[in-house]
Amino acid sequence: MHKLNIDTFDLNLLAVFLKLWETRSVTRASDKLALSQPAVSHALRRLRDAVGDELFVSGRDGLVPTARAEQLLTPVRQALSQIGLALQAGETFVPSLAQREFRIAGGDLVEFAIAPQLIETVAQEAPGILIKLVPVPEGESGYESLEAGAVDVVLDGTTVKGSGVRNEVAANIGLTTLIWKRERLTKKRFPLDLYLKRPHIVIRLAERRGSVVDQTLAAQNLKRPIGAVVQHFIAMPAIAARTGYICNLPSGMAPTFADLFGLSMHEPPMDFAPSPLYIAWHKRFEADQALAWLLQKIRQAVATVA
After folding, report:
1. N or C terminus: which one in the chain shows less Cβ crowding within 10 Å?
2. pTM, two decimal places
3. Is residue 202 very low, low, confident or very high in pLDDT (cuts 50, 70, 90)?
């Protein structure tokens, strides 16, 4: 077994490792680290010698991590995050001076309705902070990502389960029913007979989790026809505008897409319970003033669309 002398190990090599993992390129990693390409290549050779593994091999689309590199990723991220928090513990967070990257996991609602307001605020108050929107991790990987610091915040309709994860209801999201304007509906509430007759466009995620719309209708022994199942919210109004199908959008998104696609907005024909939107983070990072600041900005952005 290869033995590593931790007393003489250069921790800077771990930062190079993470950048190589993220960029899959010596050239791009050198740009991110403000180092020369030979310096990054030399660091990679030293790291290979230290751990006794190639770590990255050349592939068609760039560097490909080995199995050993995959094993190292989470503990390396976690270790560097802990070191960073320890070094920053005595410092006061000043948004206007901060240089930081945050990864926020969220779906369409987050990207279309919440992120624009959030990023606008961050750009004004903390221009050195980069917001990266990433997919919501599935299953236990959500807990693992938060614990390791690979994701800072998860915004989703379900909680992230796991020891140490904080889940907070950020908002309760209602629905608005949309249909093309040529239907000439004048009433604020959508007519139930048309709602049950005209095909609907539904999003795959809601179909898989069980839509509040279908659950409420089923409780009344009613069922709506489904005309299309899509992967993203933005497809729903686009299809509705071409077909006359019905779509139900989160109320915070509805006005933008109604104007964009020429649709009329209405209250649903029945009272559907609002769906919770949760903010999740890990308690390991609660001492991080920058994260506390970000959570507050997220809460404010969510409040504008709830």
Report:
1. N
2. 0.68
3. very high
